[in-house]
């Protein structure tokens, strides 16, 4: 039977078992090495309230705290919510990560 991926869709090289994590979308339990992992950093308040906070704040250089979370997704939810994309056979062989979009530095 032909193999679709050389790692079988997992990254547990040499380990027998890995722990299960909760999918952030459907709450199923994919293995930690198979799940799609995304780290998100967001502001605790939305942009509309941020302007009100900056106007009412006493301190000049006050930065509101951020919300840090690591999200795990099963493969089907990651494809459904477009976190990862389906790639054709030649593109599946490309192992380097895609170019990251960086915001321009403010000066």
Fraction of residues in helices?
Answer: 10-25%
Reported for the largest beta sheet, the result is:
2 strands, antiparallel
> Nearest-angstrom radius of gyration?
20 Å
- Spatial strand sequence of the major β-sheet: 1-2
Give the ordered list of helices and strands.
EHEHH
SS-based class: alpha+beta
Unreliable residue runs:
none
Binned strand content: 5-15%
Task: Give the termini distance in whole angstroms.
Answer: 57 Å
- Shape annotation: elongated
- Give the overall pLDDT as a whole number: 90
With helices defined by DSSP (H or I, 4 residues minimum), what is the helix count? 3
Oligomeric state, counting identical vs distinct chains: single chain
Number of strands: 2
Give the key terms.
107 residues, 3 helices, 19% helix, alpha+beta, single chain, elongated, two-stranded antiparallel ribbon, 15% strand
Give a written overview of the molecule.
The chain is of the alpha+beta class. It has helices at residues 47-56, 75-80, 89-92; strands spanning 36-43, 66-73. It has a two-stranded antiparallel sheet. The radius of gyration is 20 Å and the shape is elongated.
Summarize the structure in short:
The protein is α+β, with helices and mostly antiparallel strands and 107 residues long. The chain has helices spanning 47-56, 75-80, 89-92, and strands at residues 36-43, 66-73.
């Amino acid at each position: 039977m032909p193999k679709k991926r050389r790692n079988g869709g997992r990254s547990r090289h040499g380990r027998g078992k890995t722990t299960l994590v909760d999918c952030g979308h459907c709450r199923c339990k994919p293995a930690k090495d198979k799940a799609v992992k995304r780290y998100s950093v967001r502001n605790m308040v939305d942009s509309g309230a941020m302007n009100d906070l900056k106007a009412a704040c006493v301190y000049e250089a006050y930065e509101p705290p951020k919300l840090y979370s690591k999200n795990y997704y099963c493969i089907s939810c990651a494809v459904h919510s477009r976190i990862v994309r389906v790639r054709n056979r030649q593109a599946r062989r490309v192992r380097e990560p895609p170019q990251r979009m960086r915001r321009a530095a403010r000066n």
